[in-house]
Amino acid sequence: MSVTLTPMGTATVPQDEVKRVKALGCLHCKGTDLFNCRVITKNGKVSADTIQHIIDAAKQFGNGEVCMTTRLTVEIQQVPFEKIDAMRAYLAQFGLETGGTGRRVRPVVSCKGTTCQYGLLDTYGLSEEIHDRFFVGYRDVVLPHKFKIAVGGCPNNCVKPNLNDVGIFGQRIPELDAEKCRGCKKCQCAVACPVHAVSVVDGKMYADPEICTNCGRCVGKCPFHARDNSTYGFRMYVGGRWGKQVSHGILLDKVFTSKDEVLETVEKCILLFRDQGIPGERFAQTIQRIGFDNVQQQLMSDALLERKAEILAD
Fold first, then answer.
1. pLDDT of residue 4
2. Helix, strand, coil proportions of the chain in percent (round to 5)?
3. How far apart are CA 32 and CA 234, in angstroms?
4. Count of other CB atoms within 10 angstroms of residue 284
5. pLDDT for the residue 3
6. Are 75 and 65 in contact (CB under 8 A)?
7. Residue 288 to residue 281: CA distance in whole angstroms
8. Cα–Cα distance, 169 to 156 (Å, whole number)
9. What would the mean pLDDT of 116-123 be, rounded to a whole number?
10. Is residue 6's pLDDT more than 80?
């Protein structure tokens, strides 16, 4: 892809204007007066009509090319500075907006758990709720730093929820009917387990809780119906990030079985970061500084929600 430089390869757009339009989701192409403008989607899922509107905008205002970002926004490439406002007005006709930058909740991403054979939750549905409630609902809330959320359908970790500020992934917690277990020499549930957590101990099936990821792959595999029942749920990582400094998120102890409780916990994380984070630090650093046990205790109580108005008013 070629980039057209201004004369002598220098940009003429004032830096205060570069900063202003960056806050609108339009990132400067260095050495030019061109900008790549991020069009917000709900987890990258858009209608064919919406894609066409974005394509038309790219042809009319940019260089005719688009690309997907890692946060599943669609970048219209190389928009001249003087066309940014007209492009945004054009997109607004179709309910589209640019954005996804700055010290705020960023666009949520998810895997394809809604349709994937291994998916244990409706990742599209949950990510869209998170988008509406926190990306849109908290759009005017300035945080110490960017705040990224990812939703995974199962423990396979395809969308890397453990490398986001908050990561959610699906669970299917198997149950054992010990009376039906025959302690087979070749346990079919053990054969099905991808992490080798299942074995036969003292004549009964046993799943090591330190190894089992609650992927649910063993459910229904016992020919004697000892493993037919299970409970669907959610686990949550907090404090992950990638980049120059990588932090793997820490799992909260609780296995959530209520979507509403998961959404409340996401909100508590945002409020905690807003209230106790230091400007310039990521959520991972806030957790390291004040201690994971302290953070987990706050997330398991309602104190942050009770102080929501106070926290957001600061």
1. 52
2. 35, 20, 50
3. 46
4. 21
5. 52
6. no
7. 11
8. 9
9. 97
10. no
Percent of the chain with pLDDT strictly greater than 90? 94
Residue found by looking up tokens 């609650």 in the block: 214
Residue 287's H or E segment, with its range, is: helix 283-290
Distance CA(136)–CA(37), nearest Å, equals 18
**Positive or negative torsion for Cα 170, 176, 180, 181:** positive
- Let me know if 69 is exposed, middle or buried by CB neighbors in 10 A (0-12, 13-18, 19+): middle
Give dist(CA 266, CA 168) in Å, integer.
9
Q: Are 166 and 238 in contact (CB under 8 A)?
A: yes
Average pLDDT rounded to a whole number, residues 67-95 = 96
Q: Collect all residues with Cβ–Cβ distance below 8 Å to 29 and sequence separation of at least 6.
A: 3, 35, 36, 78
How large a percentage of the chain has pLDDT more than 70? 96
Contact 180, 225 (CB under 8 A): yes
